[in-house]
Write a structure and sequence with these properties.
With 246 residues, the chain is an alpha/beta fold. The protein is 39% helix and 10% strand. The protein is built from 10 helices and 6 strands, in the order βαααααβαβαβαββαα. It has a 6-stranded parallel sheet with strand order 3-2-1-4-5-6. Strand 4 (184-188), helix 8 and strand 5 (203-207) form a beta-alpha-beta unit. Helix 1 (39-52) packs across helix 4 (86-103). The model is unreliable at 1-18 (pLDDT under 50).
């Protein structure tokens, strides 16, 4: 994992403007970099794809900070190729194949990712995936993380006209959860998650485990923890605890 992040212990609280929390009833879940250690793998799959296509100038360092965006934004930002162009469609399809065949089998969930979701479920919270990944990758990632059975519903790139950091996917997940934004929290690991959630009026708990980003980059999150293990360890004092919701 890339280590472009701070190591400040504990949680830093700074609620984003426009996102308030009452009694939490649902939690929206980003997957990549939040529950499973996959961000570097996604970046490398893009780099491999660009190299195959004769675009070796698109480096890992160029792609890595874009992970967390949807491919409709990442592809033109990294290479100038629009996703809906013929070349864009070929590159997107090839990247997914490389990721699923070469990198997915090597991935591991972050420590206590399943334990955290079990705690959330046992606390009566509805769990809905909110990811810009396509459906095939989303299902594969959930299975690889060992958490598919804990998720009540999912949203993917097909459920949103515009990907993160636009709020479409969060709005779709709110609809699936059947909860208003003020009664929902989201877990994520990038500034794109924070912006997407904030624009939908949803407060977000950020994790450092996704790598690359510093706490300053994640400013605006309702709280910041090292990862699922950190949030679980401090659950009773977190925005997710019953006490923290009062």
């Amino acid at each position: 994992m890339s280590e472009h992040r701070s190591e400040a212990p504990g949680a830093t609280v700074d609620r984003p403007a426009g996102a308030t929390v009452r009694s939490v009833r649902a939690v929206l879940l980003d997957i990549d970099g939040t529950l499973i250690d996959s961000n570097d793998a996604h970046a490398q799959a893009w780099v491999d794809t660009f190299r195959e296509a004769g675009r070796a100038d698109v480096s890992f360092e160029r792609v890595r900070p874009l992970i967390g965006m949807g491919s409709d934004k990442l592809l033109p930002t990294a290479s100038g190729v629009e996703k809906e162009s013929d070349e864009g469609k070929r590159l997107t399809e090839r990247r997914s194949k490389i990721f699923l065949e070469c990198y997915l089998p090597t991935l591991r969930p972050f420590p206590n990712a399943r334990d955290l979701l079990v705690r959330l479920r046992d606390d009566g919270l509805t769990l809905v995936v909110a990811t810009s990944a396509n459906e095939k990758e989303m299902k594969a990632l959930l299975d690889r993380a060992g958490i598919a059975d804990l998720v009540e519903d999912t949203t993917t790139s097909s459920d949103a006209e515009h990907s993160k950091p636009d709020p479409d996917i969060v709005h779709a997940a709110l609809d699936r959860a059947g909860c208003p934004a003020a009664e929902t929290l989201m877990l994520g690991d990038t500034p794109y998650d924070i912006e997407s959630a904030g624009r939908a009026g949803v407060a977000l708990i950020a994790f450092r485990c996704g790598g690359w980003w510093t706490d300053d980059d994640l400013a605006g999150a309702a709280a910041i923890y090292d990862g699922p293990h950190g949030l679980l360890a401090e659950y009773d004092s977190s925005p997710l605890s019953r006490k923290g919701r009062e």
